[in-house]
Structure formats: C-alpha cells, structure tokens
Amino acid sequence: MKIKAVCEQTGLTDRTIRYYIEEGLISPFYTENYLGRKNFDFSEADVAMLKDIAILRKFGFSIAEIKQLSQHPEEAVSIIQRLQARKQQDVDDELSMLSVLKQLDAEKTHTISELSDALATPVHPATLPDGDTKAGTKQALVSLTRSLLAGIIGFLPLIFLLINISDSMRTYRYPTVNLWSLIATILTLLPTAWIVILSKCKAKRPVKRSWQLTILAACGLYLPFSFVLSYSVLGHSQTTDIRNYCVLDSECPANRSDFYQELFPDWPHYFVNEKQKDGSFQTRYLNAHYCYRFFQGLDYTYDIYAQWPLEQDAFHQEVARVKALYENAAETDTFYQVLTLEQGPYTCFIRYCGGQPFQRVNASYTYFIFAYDSKNLIVRYILCDSLENGADQPYYLELDW
C-alpha cells in the first residue's frame, strides 16, 4: 500500500508517517530513486501499527515510550504510571488556571482585548503533538538536502565533460580521440557512475546511511579531479595530412614565433609537376611527411614536423638559407643556445632551451631543428615546444635518424 492510501486510512500526514519510520517505530519495505527519495510499500500490519501509534500519541505517550513498549512490553506498568503522573500534573495545572480565571472574573471587569489575551487557547479534542510534524519537516529537509547534493555531485562531472568537449570542438582544428581521451572520460565521470550505482543498489535493497554519506563525501572530494581531467578529453589536436601544412590552431604559440615563420617554408614541397613528351604535365607526389599535434591543458605542448626531398640546386640553396638563419641566431640570441651536430646521416642545426638535444627531458623545452641528408637530398623542419615539465617527450625523438 502506498503512503497516500495509508494517510487516508490513518488520518496521519505524510511527514508524520515518515517521522515515525525515521524514529524506528515501523519499518516498511521501500525503494529509493537516484535523488534519494524513498518510496514506501506498507503492509496491513504496518497500517495497523500506525493506527495504534496514533491513538497512543493522542493520549500523550512519547515516541521514546512507544518505542520502549514495542521493544519491552514488560515495562508497560511503569510507562503508564509515568503518563498518569504527567496527566495528573496537567489536570492540576488546568485547575490552577481555572481558579485564577475565576478570581479575575470576580475582582474586576476586563476589556474584550484583555479577555482575548487571557483566553486565546480554546479547548480542542486531543490531537497529535506538534513535535511530530516539526520533526517530520526537519527530516524532509535533511532528505531534500541529501538528494540535492547527490544530484549536483552526479551531474557536475557530466557538465564539465560536455563544456570541455564543446570548447575543444570549437577551439581545435583537428580534435583527436585517443586512448588517453577515453581514460580521461572514464575518470571524469567516476562520481556520476557512483551516484547511479548507489541509486540502483538502493532501489533493490536498503543501503546504510553511513555508506551513502561516505560515498557522497568521496564523490564530492573527487569533483576537483573531475574538473581537471575533463580538460584532457578531446584536448588534443593532431593531423598528419601535409595539405594542412602550417595551418595551426589559433592558440598554438608557434603563431607568435618569428623564428618559426622564418625557418619553415611558406609552402610544403610534396609534389612536382613533370612535363610529359606530349607537352602535358603530370603530378608526381614525393616521399614527404608531416605531423602537427597540439595539446592545451593547464599548460601547452606542441610539435610541428615536415620532411621532403629536394632537387640538388634547391637543396643547396635551402641549406645555405637556413645555415645563415642559425648563424644569425647564434650571434643575437641571449636566451636560446645554438649548435650543429651530426645525427646518423643528418647534419642538424639546433636552436634550443631545455635539455640537451637527442636526450630524454624532464623539464620544459623548446627545440627548433633543421636537419638535412646530403646523400639523399632530404630536409627536415622540426619545432617541439612544451611547458609540461617533462610530462611528455619531444616528437623528434620518435623519428628514424
């Protein structure tokens, strides 16, 4: 039987019945939704017990006394004696007031206002004590507060996730999903998952309040981590399509680097148009490579890499151009170091700050690298920059040297 029908049969309010349940006078079966609202199912025995409790309450038995009678019927005599004593005291008090009223009536004439103040409380049939409904209101507020907290804790990670996915889709040119994105999504939504699991468990069987509060507290403390982790979901922008050459995200710091603009050619060299015997031209695509990736979290990291072959004259012109660029940087730079070294078949011009080139790093870094292979006439342009304090490694270490 639902609580509404029980209210009609017993004359008790919803709040009063919930108060009696909270005090442990009855224990009906219930299910609980994800907001913490309990839906009770009362048996005939529960209804009969509520009717008995209502009668006892009208006669002045306290909640503690009713609970004591339920658990220890042998103490009924002492409980009744105490109630009789209280009722006798109430009668004595009423008689004393009646005596005072008779004296007032006999001594002088009172105005309507004076009589109204003296007789403001009329005689009513016995009713339930006010404390029942007041306590019920308190319990309802506690339940509502717990439900609101569960709803907030459950929905906030989802909101964090949706906001950052939307921001990533709007900010990044090449939003990318990888394994870390999936892991970050799962970790971000852990509080939501726990709230849903808690709700499902409570729907099947009661969960101790201490466990509910522990789970809510743990999920609440985890919310800052959910907020930070949500930035890693679709937080990467990556492309290997050379047709996107040097088309960067607006937030990428390379856009503000003059040396990057001078080092990387304006156009990629990944095809040539060859003239055929009949006078027509045919496009031949070269063995060119390109990779751009950008991550913006609390700090940023990005890599830009391009490689292609050149014809001999163009190759020597390009090497001479870049060599002059690095020589000028060596004379004028006060922040970056400039060096030349051999790495396999490549000669490398390097302008950098951070760890030594071609070694793993454990701090922030910036590397501008131009590498050329004189035998195969191949040139490489590389920029790796990070403020992640060694959380990642520069992309050029992944290349085949």
Q: Which characteristics define this entry?
A:
alpha+beta, 12 strands, eight-stranded antiparallel sheet, Multidrug-efflux Transporter Regulator, Chain: A, Domain 2, 401 residues, 3 domains, 49% helix, 19% strand, two-stranded antiparallel ribbon
Q: Short description, anyone?
A:
This protein is of the alpha+beta class. The protein has helices spanning 3-10, 14-22, 44-58, 63-71, 76-107, 112-118, 130-171, 179-188, 190-204, 209-229, 258-263, 312-332, and strands at 29-32, 38-41, 175-176, 236-239, 271-275, 281-285, 289-296, 300-309, 337-343, 346-353, 365-373, 378-386.
What would you say this structure looks like, in words?
With 401 residues, the chain is an alpha+beta fold. It has 3 domains: 3-118, Orthogonal Bundle (Multidrug-efflux Transporter Regulator, Chain: A, Domain 2), CATH 1.10.1660.10; 135-232, no CATH class; 240-398, no CATH class. 49% of the residues lie in helices and 19% in strands. The chain has helices at residues 3-10, 14-22, 44-58, 63-71, 76-107, 112-118, 130-171, 179-188, 190-204, 209-229, 258-263, 312-332, and strands spanning 29-32, 38-41, 175-176, 236-239, 271-275, 281-285, 289-296, 300-309, 337-343, 346-353, 365-373, 378-386. Helix 9 (190-204) runs antiparallel to helix 10. Residues 121-125 have low confidence and may be disordered.
